[in-house]
């Protein structure tokens, strides 16, 4: 299949391009696009792209949600959004686009994180009444905090326990029963660590996922593009791949 790679000059854009050039499952690039491009072979404006493609893979920035969705809808091309930090308004745009085209949108493109999320849901039900804390660690260049993955994990826990999500703690205040805490650490070149701990009365249980290479996110996004290529309009995520 042929894709349009959006955000081609960023770290993940370059990573995805390298994966494709290594021969990943017959995927090729129909067109490269990056708003910061001044290179003839890389479009700066996605609306100028005329090449035919089977999907758009986005590794740019969440602020590009509106033009990206508008382009994909106008061309009736499946869209994989691999950025995080979307506002509620941007999420609404994604949801609206999914009524016309298949859109794959996930806070984390790692299959391992998807498996972690399923384990967290089971653990939240098993350790009833436990204090639950999420700690996420990322490199010092990461823009959003908490990470989209940490928010996803917290929402999964909330769907089971109904507890309130508290991102960061400051001042003098006792932990309230049922709270789901999130702490963010930024430093160095850490690719991504997510740790979920359940503090019960007589034991502590921790689930941890560590990203060893950024390539796992690129491979996940390309796998998502292959997955939705012939899917009907709708909003898809990692859980849908596992169902298949």
State the low-pLDDT regions, or none. none
Instruction: Indicate the overall shape.
Output: elongated
Structure annotation, total helices: 7
Distance between the termini: 20 Å
Tally of DSSP β-strands: 12
Helix content: 25-40%
Return the average pLDDT rounded to an integer.
Answer: 93
Give a verbal description of the structure.
The chain has 244 residues and is α/β, with parallel strands linked by helices. The protein folds into 2 domains: 2-109 and 214-243, Rossmann fold (3-Layer(aba) Sandwich); 111-210, Dihydrodipicolinate Reductase, domain 2 (2-Layer Sandwich). It is built from 7 helices and 12 strands. Strands 3-2-1-4-5-6-12 form a 7-stranded parallel beta sheet, sandwiched between helices. The chain has a 5-stranded mixed beta sheet with strand order 8-9-7-10-11. β5 (79-81), α3 and β6 (102-105) form a beta-alpha-beta unit. The longest helix has 16 residues, at 111-126. The protein is elongated and about 60 Å long.
Summarize the structure.
The chain is an alpha/beta fold and about 240 residues long. It contains seven helices and twelve strands.
What is the fold's blueprint, element by element?
Elements (H helix, E strand, L loop, with lengths): L1 E5 L4 H11 L6 E6 L8 E2 L11 E4 L6 H11 L3 E3 L6 H10 L4 E4 L5 H16 L4 E8 L9 H14 L3 E3 L12 E7 L6 E7 L4 E7 L4 H14 L5 E3 L1 H6 L1
Parallel strand pairs: 1-2, 1-4, 2-3, 4-5, 5-6, 6-12, 7-9, 8-9
Antiparallel strand pairs: 7-10, 10-11
């Amino acid at each position: 299949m042929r894709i349009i790679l959006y955000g081609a000059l960023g770290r993940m854009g370059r990573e995805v391009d390298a994966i494709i050039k290594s021969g990943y499952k017959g995927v090729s690039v129909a067109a490269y696009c990056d708003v910061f491009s001044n290179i003839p072979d890389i479009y700066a404006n996605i609306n100028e792209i005329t090449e035919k493609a089977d999907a758009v893979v986005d590794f740019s920035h969440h602020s590009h949600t509106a033009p990206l969705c508008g382009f994909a809808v106008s061309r009736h091309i499946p869209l994989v959004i691999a950025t995080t930090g979307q506002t509620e308004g941007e999420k609404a745009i994604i949801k609206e686009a999914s009524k016309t085209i298949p859109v794959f949108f996930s806070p984390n493109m790692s299959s391992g994180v998807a498996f972690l999320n399923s384990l967290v849901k089971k653990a939240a039900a098993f350790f009833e009444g436990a204090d639950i804390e999420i700690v996420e660690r990322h490199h010092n260049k990461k823009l959003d905090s908490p990470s989209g993955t940490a928010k996803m994990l917290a929402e999964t826990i909330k769907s089971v326990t109904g507890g309130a999500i508290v991102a960061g703690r400051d001042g003098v205040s006792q932990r309230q029963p049922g709270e789901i805490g999130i702490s963010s650490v930024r430093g160095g070149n850490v690719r991504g660590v997510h740790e979920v701990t359940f503090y019960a009365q007589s034991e502590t249980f921790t689930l941890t996922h560590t990203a060893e290479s950024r390539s796992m996110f690129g491979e996940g996004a390309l796998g998502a593009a292959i997955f939705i290529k012939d899917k009907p309009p709708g909003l898809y995520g990692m859980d849908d791949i596992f169902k298949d």
